[in-house]
Amino acid sequence: MELVCPAGNLPSLKAAVDHGADAVYMGFRDDTNARHFPGLNFTEGSAAEGIRYAKERGRRVFVAINTYPQPHNWPRWQRAVDHAADLGVDALILADIAVLEYAARRHPELALHLSVQGSATTYEALRLYHEHFGVRRAVLPRVLSLPQVEHLIRNAPVELEVFGFGGLCVMVEGRCTLSSYVTGASPNACGVCSPAHAVRWEETPQGLETRLGGLLIDRFGEGERAGYPTVCKGRYRVGDDLYYAIEEPTSLNTLELLPELARAGVAAIKIEGRQRSPAYVAQVTRVWREAIDAVRREGERFRPRADWQAALAKVSEGNQTTLGAYHRPWQ
């Protein structure tokens, strides 16, 4: 299994490469990728330097151009595809079918991966992307159980990449518009959920409050770990109860499923977190490198080490982890 790690900027890319990533994924500094946060992503110069750094060490580089262009800004997505091809990246991670068609026609030699934003969950959908656009790999949405992933691997004509670790959001991969209601911007079209300009942190007599577009998302007591405000992970009053009414902050962690994922034939494990710090990338990459290598040596005897789980717990949302949809008996 290939280990694919996030690179939100050049220091994170170097951290991922230095700590064992087989491949890194990155985006340009505009709304063509789904992590369009201020201070993140790559300029033309830093992208070239990062790609050179990774390739000199035998690692692969993927570029995510995985938002959905609108009629007025379509040329920007074309330029992003051309720019990535000129840089010599190993693959493009795309979602929109028009961008896929443009890339396949303009750069037929370039490997294309279907982004998780494409939300393909059936082998019939994967076959369509493969036959029409030559897609070679797909990143599966985090909504499938392990048996469903295994079924796809047996029948899909493309390699499959699954998420191994990182934050979870509500199960509408690639189609979330929640933040649009309070900020006017969605990750689909603008590349950002909860844009920084709409975020407010305020100390109040009741505690630290986080707001998004003026909407109170959460209030934290003394010593309570405060998360970045997103609509889906706010605490709201429903009737007489105040709780995480949509989704509780938690991180996916599939370390204990690694032998099953390897046996099923998963091509790559993806680590979420291009918005995270280089220190986060270094720590998570190191743990997953050691774990994947251990699975190769030990096979079914593999057991996650306690120090790995402790290291991941420190960087998990809300200090909580879950197997998520991979382990849902009712699915």
TrEMBL record:
Pathway assignment: Cofactor biosynthesis; ubiquinone biosynthesis
Keyword line: 4Fe-4S, Hydrolase, Iron, Iron-sulfur, Metal-binding, Protease, Ubiquinone biosynthesis
Gene Ontology terms, MF aspect: 4 iron, 4 sulfur cluster binding; metal ion binding; peptidase activity
Chain positions recorded as [4Fe-4S] cluster binding sites: 169, 176, 193, 232
Any Pfam family the entry gives: Peptidase_U32
InterPro entries: Peptidase_U32 (IPR001539), RNA/ubiquinone_mod_enzymes (IPR051454), UbiU (IPR043692)
Cofactor(s) this protein cannot do without: [4Fe-4S] cluster
Top-level taxonomic group: Bacteria
GO BP term (any one): ubiquinone biosynthetic process
The protein's role, per its UniProt record: Required for O(2)-independent ubiquinone (coenzyme Q) biosynthesis. Together with UbiV, is essential for the C6-hydroxylation reaction in the oxygen-independent ubiquinone biosynthesis pathway.
Description of how the protein assembles with itself and partners: Forms a heterodimer with UbiV.
Protein's name in the database: Ubiquinone biosynthesis protein UbiU
Protein's organism: Inmirania thermothiophila
Organism phylogeny: Bacteria, Pseudomonadati, Pseudomonadota, Gammaproteobacteria, Chromatiales
